[in-house]
Amino acid sequence: MNATQWTQQIKTEAKRLGFLSCGISKAGFLEIEAPRLEKWLNQNMHGEMRYMENHFDKRLDPTKLVEGSKSVISLLLNYFPSESQNPDAYKISKYAYGTDYHFVIKDKLKQLLHFIQEEIGEVHGRAFVDSAPVLDKAWAAKSGLGWIGKNSNLLTQQVGSFYFIAELIVDLELDYDTPVTDHCGTCTACIDACPTQAIVEPYVVDGSKCISYFTIELKNEIPSEFHGKLDDWMFGCDVCQDVCPWNRFSAPHQEPLFNPNPDLLNYSKKDWEEITEEVFQEIFKKSAVKRTKWEGLRRNITFLKE
């Protein structure tokens, strides 16, 4: 068998495992992203996310991350829900409705890597789900899965942007895909709608002004100048995705593990304000919301009430 046949096998298996799409690019240094990342860090747009400063070289070159790597296999997994929260409630980003995606995707990636090893032979690789210094969106765009939009999310004409991005980096040469063109055009919906003006220019998001940063990453108090600007988001934020015209093509996911606890959908603001630690642990037993802990969610809700 040859690289073309292997590539086809891998893409077929990825589809069988439930991934939306699969694109492949040659592992190597990301020349275009290097100066962008350096500038973004120098302007302190990562706020207190100091880990973004680490492993600069590895972030830009997967061959430094996985020895002997030749290909980056990028995969998308849909998380768009079929139901939304009670409109009279503090909001949670849709990606966190169900089981923590790290577990769900890691399991699928392991299955895909096992399939590659079974079918093709001795292939070494590693699975990544935004838990290591890999520029997920850059690799997905390079692999032809979409383009990076003005809100800095990966966008596709077919399904919008409500999906997770993950990678397998392997020491196997495959057929490589080519990038697609940018289809944002003159649209500025995401820039206009951002409650904290975090999209400081097209394609540049100041992470230190993003609602997701305030409600998840920031461990200190949320700056008082953002009172009344968090749009009732208590964990994450979907505004720049919700207003994106391409997301009118989003279709509900087919992954049972991403289905939410019914309480998450039905709770009112009053219910969230009164949530106990025990109930928090029950509703978010396996959820990404556990990252912020009960105390963090309480801090966010208190800030929204003030």
TrEMBL record:
Pathway: tRNA modification; tRNA-queuosine biosynthesis. Its main location: cytoplasm. The keyword Hydrolase does not apply. One of its GO terms (cellular component) is cytoplasm. This is Epoxyqueuosine reductase. The gene is queG. Keywords: 4Fe-4S, Cobalamin, Cobalt, Cytoplasm, Iron, Iron-sulfur, Metal-binding, Oxidoreductase, Queuosine biosynthesis, tRNA processing. Pfam families: Fer4_16, QueG_DUF1730. Monomer. It catalyses: epoxyqueuosine(34) in tRNA + AH2 = queuosine(34) in tRNA + A + H2O. SUPFAM superfamilies: alpha-helical ferredoxin.
